[in-house]
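An instance noted here:
***
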Amino acid sequence: MQFIRRLLRAPAFHIVLLTLLLGMVFLRTQISPQDDHFHYQKFIETLASGRLDLSIPGFQGASFLALPLYLLTHSPLTNIYVQLLCALLLPLAGYAAAQALLKDRFQAVLFSYVIALSPYLTFIAFRGFTFPSFTLLILLTLWLRARGSAWAFLPWAFSVITKPFSIALFPLFLLWHPSRTNDANRHAQGWWVRFAFWKRSSRVSWWSKGWVQILFALPIPVLYVALQYAQVGHVIVGSHANLDQSNVFLWWRMPLNAAHGLQMMFSVHNYYFPDPGKTGPGNIMHTSPLLVAFGVFALLYPRENWKDICLARAIALTALIAFSLAAALDHMDHFYMETSVLLLTLASLPFVARHRLLLPLVLALFHLSFFYIWLWGRGTYFMDYSIFFVPFMVDILALLSWMLLGMPRSMAEWKRILRDLGWLGASA
């Protein structure tokens, strides 16, 4: 029994378990390439032939990363395979980013579960969407930035040319400076998080300063846009060949889009009222609305929930800018809001860690995400009910963890908890 308790306290156990869970369900899920995949795959194959063709629709940042695999396999599904690999790395990247930012193991493990229980971040890879690689690049940026690494600009720059919404991360470079870490904090992350990185000095280097990182990151998206403009004569906005820099932003639609965005973020199910016929996976809950609400609360009252007030303000501004960028487009889509939603769920962790009785409610709403994605993908991606194995196993693990680690062992402990909640008087 002591061995099981030690295992449940080890972050590595949870990361490996979540990765294996996703991997096993991935093996039971069918690949069905759709729309955007063919643009990304065509770009990869064209690039492998020695030609950089930016007239192909789609932001191709992730396609550059997929090139080595295509050169090895020449598979017509290279883009999807890379996205699946990125999806499997998300729990580890989520833990690393949260641990580096919040310096709390429980919150970091909790964030890895949030990532694994967000099926629209992972299973969308079977369609060929690049959101798994986009999310991975954002998490790597947050991790490296929190560590004061001089390489944080690199995944950030590639995330911008994968989905430009991540340009909103600049407040984390300008307004927040990571605190110096010592060897104790580094060892707290575990060797499996830091095995590929050299020993850092506690002294922050000149080239890891925020404004320097921004200057390092700028040339990659600027060069990408300049080359595309030279080849095509305008900027192609994503996979929408009919959109360019002149018509992508519809400012008069911003209030309506913002209203619909708030509806998506705080509702269990959503209805795309601007155009009912377009209600689909982009308008269905991608995470637990409770976490989004808790994240907003934690950012509005940072002194009550955050140790690093400056970090909280930078995350709040980043989430607001990312949401505004999405609202300024032709229509609002939950996929467009992934940057802001990801940061709001990250911001909710300090609040949830202090109010752990909320965790069952949070977990319950994640089950609806799996139900909705199953409704959307049954018969195409999901031939059976195996996708529900992920939340089912998390339920079992959560109950086991509570029974072995958190459940009160005596009536006195139950009374103390009830008194802390205000359900019992001081004399009880």
